[in-house]
Write a structure and sequence with these properties.
The protein is of the alpha/beta class. Helices cover 37% and strands 12% of the residues. It is built from 9 helices and 8 strands. Helix 3 packs parallel to helix 4.
Length: 281
């Protein structure tokens, strides 16, 4: 079974997408499950993981409602205020919905680079592990050493690094991103997503631009700890779903068939769905 492990849906009139401004052009409109369904059908993708795009519990409840009405959505990665005094209780309430499979604070947008190290976040991380939820890490390369500290402190917490932490592909820089990603890959509770890479590359990107970064991720994590995601509709800013999927097929062409199966669905089913009693169909 093929699973798109990272996509978004939104309705702008909801009003809590602070980053989604008119200057983003092609993606500054509503995107619904009916928009995504024909794309998934074209690529023979049977299930998806729907990921938050606003830092509010209201959006998480909205996404859970969308998932409940759409069998293609096998799970939701939502949002909770990790720094709130009642964070463990709030996480428990959200986790009562079996469609919730993880939570994602938008770390890349938080001004404090050391936010992940705050001691008042520990109860939230512990609650995630207690309720069999994944911590989706929306981080930048500068956050990777802080994320490593979290992974070490909470060895029972599954950590998914979104978009390979957005490596500096456009600038063709490799370090310290590569070193820090390798350190995280040494932790058995950490995996990573092959997603969001083309929006970090030049407008005229080619597969060759992505190859060093994908090859490094494969070497660090192996095909058994990488998940493929589209990052749709954000990927429309850099060519769209089809070119990214074609590039992914080419980038992973050297893997054995079983390894490609894991990257394109098996790992997502294991990491996001199995502990929550979910199945991707």
């Amino acid at each position: 079974m093929r699973i798109d492990a990272h996509h978004h849906l939104w309705e702008i009139a909801r009003g809590d997408y602070g980053w989604l401004t008119p200057d983003l052009g092609a993606i500054h409109r509503d995107f619904t499950a009916s928009d995504l369904a024909p794309i998934l059908a074209r690529h023979d993708i049977q299930a998806t993981i729907l990921v938050q795009a606003a830092p509010t519990e209201a959006e998480t409840r909205y996404l859970l409602g969308v998932a409940a009405r759409n069998p293609l959505v096998a799970g939701v990665v939502g949002w909770a205020d990790f720094a709130a005094a009642d964070a463990p209780d709030a996480i428990a309430r959200l986790a009562a919905d079996p469609l919730l499979v993880g939570l994602r604070p938008m770390v890349q947008d938080i001004p404090d680079d050391d936010w992940l190290l705050r001691p008042d976040l520990v109860p939230a991380f512990e609650a995630l592990a207690r309720h069999d939820l994944v911590f989706d890490a929306l981080v930048l390369p500068k956050h990777l050493p802080r994320l490593l500290a979290v992974a070490r402190r909470h060895p029972d917490l599954p950590v998914v690094i979104d978009h390979l932490a957005k490596p500096p592909i456009r600038e063709r820089r490799f370090e310290p991103w590569a070193r820090d990603l390798a350190a995280l890959a040494a932790r058995p509770n950490v995996v990573a997503k092959l997603s969001g890479l083309v929006t970090e590359a030049s407008v005229d990107w080619t597969g060759d631009d992505l190859t060093p970064y994908v090859d490094h991720a494969l070497a660090c994590f192996s095909p058994h700890r990488l998940l493929w995601g589209s990052d749709w509709p954000v990927v429309d800013l850099a060519g769209g779903y089809d070119p990214w999927r074609a590039a992914s097929d080419a980038l992973l062409a050297g893997l054995a068939e079983g390894e490609r199966t894991m990257v394109f669905g098996g790992n997502a089913a294991r990491i996001y769905l199995s502990k929550r009693g979910r199945t991707p169909c």
